[in-house]
Amino acid sequence: MAGRLPLRNFIIFISNNSIKLNHPKQPSRLQTSPISRVLRRRNNTILNKKMPKTKLGYYAVRIGHKPGIYKTWEECRDQVHKYPNAKYEKFPTLKEAQAFISGVSISEKEQELDAADNSYNAEVTKLVVWTDGCSLNNGKDGARAGIGVFWGNNHPRNLSERLPGYKQTNNRAEITAVIRALETCPDSELPLEIMTDSKYTINAYESWIPKWIKSGWKTANKKPVENQDLFVRLVELIEARPGKTHVPGHVGIPGNEAADRLANLGALKEEVKTTTVSSTEQKSQNSKMNFTEDDFYSPEELTEIAAEIYSLR
């Protein structure tokens, strides 16, 4: 039928209960179709509106490619896009985001964390946390890795978690434990000492990462840096802290032994699945996903668009 664009020429994106109706490049005759004119007119109206300032907040991903807390929607979207049953939410405060990640109500978590945080009196000049990672049958099929973060005896911020993803290696567990310590730190202003016995993590933090950043995350042999995704996250968290962060080595002290026990318990927990994507595939996906929340029509807007379109039939 003249002037109508077949439905197959449209791509419908569905995200967060919003719908984006988008059409790929088509011959010039389609540019003047009734649907194209309606969408173009509405888009021009939207672009001419004064956009409100984006409210700051924290995007918490409980279930996704890489669970954690992110500062932008784009980072959050990358972790939940095409992930089955992903769970994520935006919060105005870091405390609420952390409570969502842990799976408890904010009121319960607030009571526990406030009581623990109040134990840091005015005389405290720095925070100390012990981290450890382990992998049962490391390097073999069926390996199980866990992470442990120890803030103190019976401290509510102590963590015992299964390492996410299919790469259940000791090195990834060690790095992730440090990352989780940074994510759960109760005070970003105070200096933080993260005690780990991982020479791999310490060497990366003190020597290798600055060189990798300069080389575009390439080794001396021009190969991609292993575990780059975790190191990038580590750098982001450290740079976001106003307080100084130090990662010294340690062996055979009570805090380390407690973190080790937590890591081993974490390795026995249920698998946390993530979908792994190669760097090449990720770049390809990102180029195809170059849209934001503002690129989507709400159901109400789509209803109005449909009414305008059908009035032209």
From TrEMBL:
Which residue numbers delimit the RNase H type-1 domain?
Answer: 123-268
Key word Cell wall biogenesis/degradation present: no
Its catalytic activity? Endonucleolytic cleavage to 5'-phosphomonoester
GO biological process annotations for this chain's record?
Answer: DNA replication, removal of RNA primer
For this protein, the record's PROSITE patterns field holds:
RNASE_H_1
MF GO annotations: metal ion binding; nucleic acid binding; RNA-DNA hybrid ribonuclease activity
| Keyword DNA damage part of the UniProt annotation | no
SUPFAM superfamilies in the cross-refs: L9 N-domain-like (SSF55658), Ribonuclease H-like (SSF53098)
The UniProt keyword set, sorted, is: Endonuclease, Hydrolase, Magnesium, Metal-binding, Nuclease
Q: Which cofactor does it need?
A: Mg(2+)
Q: Name one Pfam family in it.
A: Cauli_VI
Q: Which InterPro entries match?
A: Ribosomal_bL9/RNase_H1_N, RNase_H, RNase_H1_N, RNase_H1_N_sf, RNaseH-like_sf, RNaseH_domain, RNaseH_sf
Enzyme Commission identifier(s) = 3.1.26.4
Enumerate the PANTHER family for this protein. RIBONUCLEASE H1
> Which family does this protein fall into?
Belongs to the RNase H family.
Name under which the protein is recorded: ribonuclease H
